[in-house]
């Protein structure tokens, strides 16, 4: 029977969610594998593990539950060990590194922030800042929308201006929130966001961090900010 | 859908699966000695939702949007965006029956498209959708 690993904690963690339902259908009960000063949160692995919605949620829920009781190094979804002994071997081999990282993550959670432009608001800004674009837009409107060529010309210029704003706004988001956090990490590469950044935040400073997000929202109403957290510190496992 | 009950205690702790999927699948500790589950189909997550691409479609869309734009009104009016998270979460649940994440992810990205289109004042030109389809296939 192979072993699925959710995360790694210190042996003295004390509040690991043992017997909680993990991945699989029916859910495999969560248990621990101990080695030295470390403990791995594991369950049996279902015969055929695939990234199903149910299992992704189970992975996430086990880590959230464990993280509420103390620092946990979250594993990426889908890591399967041949057996419990192989888990012990890994814990023994990397004990120092894992303990150091757990120490660094103690009392901290991850917040992921994604930013997009509100299209109408950013177009407003771009036109407000650039008289030439405004004139082009006015001319088009007076001509009943303008010719295909005119629309293309205006659109291309506006797209360039918006793209420029995406870059400067990404920096603005990072700067606005970095002071309220301990560490930051760029999110996985994905398109659709002008910024996708994870921040490591001390639990006792979460209110300040969220206040910094609100301040940014007020200051930059052309940004649509999505904040997700508190999360297990996926982006800060070292 | 309630996710991660243990995360209560901080506002903003209502993340749905989609919102953190990329972190669960692309971040977190990896141990070389372990076998990793195949993530075939996940790249569909990289689909663009609202990205500025240098394309004729985008140029025309922006030009049209500027025509409609009322410069006299404040730039900060409520954008009237739909509750994206709610929409996604509801539709995402339908992906269950498909089993594999590729199914769920497809459903979720479809939900995004639906939500986006519902929020548009007028239907998006057909050409744009086919263009983005092609892009997905190439990726």
From TrEMBL, chain A:
Record's keyword annotation contains Chloroplast: no
Parts forming coiled coils: none
One Pfam family it belongs to: GvpL_GvpF
Keyword line: Gas vesicle
Family annotation (InterPro entries): GvpL/GvpF
Subcellular location: Gas vesicle
Stated family: Belongs to the gas vesicle GvpF/GvpL family.
Name of the molecule in the record: Gas vesicle protein
From TrEMBL, chain B:
Main location: other
InterPro entries attached to this UniProt entry: Gas-vesicle_GvpA-like, Gas_vesicle_GvpA, GvpA, GvpA-like_CS
PROSITE patterns xref list: GAS_VESICLE_A_1 (PS00234), GAS_VESICLE_A_2 (PS00669)
Taxonomy, superkingdom: Bacteria
Protein task: Gas vesicles are hollow, gas filled proteinaceous nanostructures found in some microorganisms. During planktonic growth they allow positioning of the organism at a favorable depth for light or nutrient acquisition. GvpA forms the protein shell.
Phylogenetic lineage: Bacteria, Bacillati, Actinomycetota, Actinomycetes, Kitasatosporales
Disordered: annotated span: 92-139
Pfam families assigned to the protein according to its UniProt record, in alphabetical order: Gas_vesicle
Cell compartments where the protein resides: Gas vesicle shell
Name of the protein in question: Gas vesicle protein A
Basic and acidic residues bias: start-end ranges: 111-125
Keywords, sorted A to Z: Gas vesicle
Family statement: Belongs to the gas vesicle GvpA family.
Subunit and interaction comment: The gas vesicle shell is 2 nm thick and consists of a single layer of this protein. It forms helical ribs nearly perpendicular to the long axis of the vesicle.
């Amino acid at each position: 029977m192979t072993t699925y690993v959710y995360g790694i904690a210190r042996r003295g963690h004390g509040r690991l969610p043992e017997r909680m339902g993990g991945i699989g259908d029916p859910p495999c009960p969560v248990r621990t594998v101990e080695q030295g000063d470390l403990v791995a949160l594991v369950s049996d692995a279902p015969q055929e593990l695939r990234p199903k919605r149910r299992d992704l949620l189970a992975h996430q829920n086990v880590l959230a539950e464990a993280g509420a009781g103390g620092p946990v190094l979250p594993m990426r979804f889908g890591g399967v060990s041949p057996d419990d002994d192989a888990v012990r071997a890994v814990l023994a081999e990397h004990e120092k590194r894992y303990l150091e990282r757990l120490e660094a993550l103690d009392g901290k959670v991850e917040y992921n922030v994604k930013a997009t432009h509100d299209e109408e608001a950013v177009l407003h800004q771009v036109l407000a800042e650039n008289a030439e674009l405004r004139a082009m837009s006015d001319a088009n409107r007076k001509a009943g929308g303008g010719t295909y060529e005119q629309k293309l010309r205006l659109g291309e210029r506006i797209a360039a201006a918006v793209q420029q704003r995406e870059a400067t706004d990404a920096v603005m988001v990072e700067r606005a929130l970095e002071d309220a956090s301990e560490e930051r990490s760029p999110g996985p590469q994905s398109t659709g966001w002008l910024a996708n950044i994870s921040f490591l935040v001390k639990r006792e400073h979460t209110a300040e961090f969220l206040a910094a997000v609100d301040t940014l929202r007020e200051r930059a109403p052309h940004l649509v900010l999505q904040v997700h957290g508190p999360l297990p510190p996926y982006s800060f496992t070292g | 859908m309630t996710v991660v009950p243990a995360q209560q205690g901080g506002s903003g702790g209502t993340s749905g699966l989609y919102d953190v999927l990329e972190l669960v699948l692309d971040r977190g500790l990896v141990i070389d000695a372990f076998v990793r589950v195949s993530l075939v189909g996940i790249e569909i997550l990289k689909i663009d939702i609202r990205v500025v691409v240098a394309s004729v479609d985008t140029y025309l869309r922006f030009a049209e949007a500027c025509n409609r734009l009322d410069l006299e009104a404040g730039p900060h009016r409520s954008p009237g965006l739909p509750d994206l998270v709610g929409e996604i979460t509801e539709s995402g649940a339908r992906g269950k029956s498909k089993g594999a994440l590729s199914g769920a992810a497809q459903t979720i990205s479809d939900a995004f498209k639906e939500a986006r289109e519902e929020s548009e004042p007028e239907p998006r030109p057909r050409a744009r959708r086919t263009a983005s389809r092609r892009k997905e296939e190439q990726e």
